[in-house]
Every structure is written in structure tokens, then in C-alpha cells.
Amino acid sequence: MSRPEGTALRPRLERALAAWLPWQRWFGGKGRPVAGVEVEQLVELVDQRASGGPLGLLAVVAVRFADGGDAERYQVPIGVRTALPDRLAPAVLAGFDGCVVYDATGDAELNAVLLRLIGQRAVRGGVGFTPEPSFAGASKRGLVGRPIGAEQSNTSIVYGDRYILKLYRRVAAGLNPDLEAHRALRRARSRHIAPLLGSIEGEVGGEPATFGMLQAFAANAAEGWAMAMTSVRDLFADTDAAPDAAGADFAAEARRLGGAVAAVHADLARELGTGTADPRSVADDMLAHLEPALVAVPGLAPYADRLRAAFAGVGALRERVPVQRVHGDLHLGQVLRTPATWLLIDFEGEPAAPIAERTEPRSPLRDVAGVLRSLDYAAQHQLRLFHPTPELRRRARRWTAHNREAFTAGYAEAAGGDPAGRLLTAFELEKAVYEAVYETRNRPDWVDIPLRAVRRLLGEEDLDDR
Ligand SMILES: Nc1ncnc2c1ncn2[C@@H]1O[C@H](COP(=O)(O)OP(=O)(O)O)[C@@H](O)[C@H]1O
Ligand SMILES: O=P(O)(O)O[C@H]1O[C@H](CO)[C@@H](O[C@H]2O[C@H](CO)[C@@H](O)[C@H](O)[C@H]2O)[C@H](O)[C@H]1O
């Protein structure tokens, strides 16, 4: 079999990637015309072709954009085979020289190699695979690695019901905030993260960078989003029930979740430090994010002046704002309820923000606002799935208020201070503006949910709610 790698592979791979990348869910440059793709690294991980298996490579590719803005780097595990099993057909990137080249994250054989390399503390072409002590001796025999969920910012591979390996798709110089936060929370012996078991680290642009993180898989866990959605659904279906009497009342869980978020904040503060920020700089930050959002989302235009005023109002607060490392993109899809406790996952921050910005100390109220927004999302999304009658709209509002109260009470109980007031409302507004941009780019038919929230948070009556 001929070798398609090296000088022959790169230009063809680059052309194929330029066409393929923009269609991937995790591609952050959506809407920006791609000017070119350069394969910066092509590391050989394994060559099993002698036994009829695949060649496994790890590519780091730089994407340049026609708008002249910053290039972005992505990680793409690559497989090369002479004959491709049918199940891998959707991952094909290119075919030449009698070989098929494909995105390897769906290839169980190559996924098994990644786990093995971590267990072996291997180094391949400058990429280091490092186990934590608790993983090094564990048996990995017979574990098949399958990617989960297409709708993610990265690609996570689950091995049996034991491990989950998250491959960061967008890679940048510096320690990934997710790995950094997990290391800090492990030092703090937090009960609210999945145990950290290993990492994959290399270099981009001559600086250290994180490619992957291995954790224990919480097999018997329910996602907060699914639990909340079920609770609202039950309340809508049982027209006689009050929010706390419906089949799946979520309030007790919302309260425990509040406690878990406060405990994680306390641990992050202890491990990574605290400070205070001038309220004017908090306001400037909100205003700086607002302007590009107004350009990206035409539906925000009617609220532009009131949003500017609400954010500027934060600058007038008398007290300095306590800041620390936070989760950064907390919502109900980022929390898992195990039989024992709530776990927080994905400390990477907002996928669209530059890495340096994501690790900046922020007010923990941003995370509180993230969960509050998510409670609203659960009720509003469930409304879209039912026929939204005035009665259901009333029920949606009651469900949200009831669970907001429970979550904030749980947070206050553990943190020793009630999260409320103008700053929290401003963070909710900031999050809703972020969501309006996110939905416009990724799920345009959802954009109404954050736009309605902006209206409500600005004190305007929702026309449908009368
Ligand atoms: N330790 C874990 N145990 C069980 N499921 C997990 C674990 N970590 C993540 N997941 C699942 O994988 C999904 C993707 O994880 P996440 O870290 O949010 O990745 P992404 O950055 O791609 O959004 C989550 O929505 C969750 O359902
Ligand atoms: O989980 P990610 O880090 O990829 O976060 C992004 O995608 C989320 C959607 O999957 C998005 O969350 C928004 O929708 C959720 C329901 O699907 C809702 O629970 C959240 O409150 C809402 O913000 C998130 O904003 C985005 O960064």
C-alpha cells in the first residue's frame, strides 16, 4: 500500500479540510469565509497497516479567514485506511492513492489507541499523554471508544461506562481553562467534579497547549437540562398541579445545585485566588461585548439604548465587585446529577471567547446568572414544544420563579450571601445578549428565547403574557 502521508498528503488534506471544517458543529469561525487551511502539525500516533488496520495521525491545522482577522487553530485526529468500514463513511475527508482519509473520532480502533497512549505515558512527536496515578494501573482491556453527542463544542469519546476523553477541537497556546480548573478543584478535593484521570498536551505556535482531558465517566448521571425539561413538561401536562406538586418538581434539586455551585466557587477561590474589580471596568466589559452583538443580532436593535443604560448603570455601583475564577459558561447542560451529588463539567468558558479572556477573574454572579437563564430556557423551550396557551405561559412563569428562588436560596445558604440586585440582573442581561448571538449563529429558530428574556429583564411586558 502506498503511503499517502508527507508532502503528498498535506496539500490534499488542506484542501479537504477547508471544505469540511466550516460544516462542523464545533467550528468557531462560522460565517467567516475561509481563506486557507495550513496543516501545522501531523503527528503519527500509530501505524497498524501491517495488520490491515488504520494509520492514526493527529493534525493541528491553522485556519486563515478572508476577513483578515485572527486565524484559529483546530485539532483533527486523522485516520487513513485502504478500505473504510461503512459506519465511518460520514467522516471521510478525502480519498487518494488508494487510501481514504477521514476524521478519526468515530474510529473505535484509533480511539482505543488514545486511551492506551495515556496509560503508557507515551510521547509522540512532541505530544505528551499523561495519566493521573489513579488511571495508570487501571485495566483498559476491551473498552471501545465511541464519540457522544454531535451538538457539542468539542468531541468527547466515552470508553465503556468508565472513562470520557474530551478532545478540544479548538486549540490555543496556554493551559486549557477546563484542565486548569479541574486540576485546581482536584487539589481542593471537590465532590462536584468528575475525577480527573489524564491529559494530552503538546505545543501550538511554540507554546504549551492542551489537546485533551480524560475523566471518570459518570455513567448513572442525569443531565440537569433533561431533568428540568421533564419537570416543566410534567407541570404543563398536569393542568391542575402547582409547580411544587407536579410529578417531577425540580426545586429540591435546584436548591442542591445552588449549594454545589457555591461550593465550587469557594474551592476555586481558595485555589486560584480572589480580588475585586472596579464596577466601571465590569460595565466597560459588558458594553464592549454588547456592540458586536448588536451588529450580529438585528433583533436586539430595539433594546440597544436600554441595554447600554443597564450596563452603564453597573459602573455607578458604589462597592467594588468581588471577582475570582468562575465556570464561565454555566447552564443546565453543564451539570450532571449522580446518585450522590451534582457535578459541574466543562470549565472551558464561553466557546467563542479568546482563552485569555476566559480565565480572567470574574464575578461569581455570572455563573449564578447562567443557571437562572437556563431555568428560563427550560420553561420557554418546553412552551415551544407545547401549544403555548396563556395558561401554559402562566405556568412557565411560575415554574421559573419557583426554581429560581430554590436555586438562589441553595446558593445563598452555602455562600452566606443572597445573590440578588442590579448586578445580577445586569449579568442575566449580558448572558441573554450572548445567547442571542449564540442562537443566531447556531440555532436561529431558538433566538426568540433570549430576545424575550432581554425584553422581560428590561422590565417590558411580554405581549403574549397579558
Ligand atoms: N464525566 C462525565 N460523565 C458523564 N458524562 C459526561 C461527563 N463529562 C461530560 N459528559 C457528557 O458529555 C457532554 C459533553 O461534555 P462537555 O464537557 O460539555 O463538552 P463540550 O465542551 O463539547 O460541550 C455533556 O453534555 C455530558 O452529557
Ligand atoms: O455547552 P456549550 O459550552 O457548547 O455551550 C454553548 O451551547 C449551549 C447550548 O448547547 C448554550 O446554552 C444555551 O442553550 C441551553 C439549552 O440548550 C440552555 O440551557 C442555556 O441556558 C443557554 O445558554 C450556551 O450558551 C453556549 O455557550
UniProtKB/TrEMBL annotation:
Pathway: Glycan biosynthesis; glycogen biosynthesis. The keyword DNA-binding does not apply. It catalyses: D-maltose + ATP = alpha-maltose 1-phosphate + ADP + H(+). It comes from the Bacteria. The keyword Transferase applies. Residues 20-107 form the Maltokinase N-terminal cap domain. Keywords: ATP-binding, Carbohydrate metabolism, Glycogen biosynthesis, Glycogen metabolism, Kinase, Nucleotide-binding, Transferase. Its EC number is 2.7.1.175. Belongs to the aminoglycoside phosphotransferase family. Monomer. This is Maltokinase.
